[in-house]
């Protein structure tokens, strides 16, 4: 499996955007541990300034973070996803953009959520994504990463329904984040639920 390019990832998400938008919200509504992680992030990020959900898709996680009291906006590579997010949540700001080249000033964010959005990045490119997250995050701000965990294997590609994605060992991802200048606050692993294939990983890091 070749790593997907950014253009191929955007095209693939554009093509599936409407169906994806219909499925995304029920997922968040039914998984208590996912909501617990987002609630913990909201608690530490509530007083630190604007939060960006990077790779926000059609926006349900952005809206959930807003409902938790955060000043939040969304960024996504896929114009179709951003159009759907704007339609569904007209009170929120959504912008087309790429996580590895953000149109944001240094230290301008108080928090970042990447909820299954770095999963398609080619593994050698991940340090550049994390460096960009560190650049735009103010000192003391928090980063929450959600991803597919590799369950004892090294970084492993898999046939994600939209386009090739990667499962990461939680220790490896935490090490890359540390190398980019983050300090680990905590981690949460949960086993796959009904209809899910892989263990889920969550890392909370501080800039
Ligand atoms: C699995 S979806 C997750 C969407 C959303 N976070 C959610 O959980 O509902 C991954 C999203 O990341 C976006 N994405 C992938 N690579 C990106 C990049 N380099 N910059 C911005 N968004 C990206 C895709 O377009 C897609 O909408």
TrEMBL record:
Q: Where is the Methyltransferase domain?
A: 51-141
- Biological process (GO) annotations? methylation
A GO molecular function term, named singly, is:
methyltransferase activity
Q: Which UniProt keywords are present, listed alphabetically?
A: Methyltransferase, Transferase
Q: Which InterPro entries match?
A: Methyltransf_25 (IPR041698), Methyltransf_Superfamily (IPR050508), SAM-dependent_MTases_sf (IPR029063)
Pfam families from the UniProt entry: Methyltransf_25
List the SUPFAM superfamilies: S-adenosyl-L-methionine-dependent methyltransferases (SSF53335)
Q: What is this protein called?
A: SAM-dependent methyltransferase
From what organism does this protein derive?
Actinophytocola xanthii
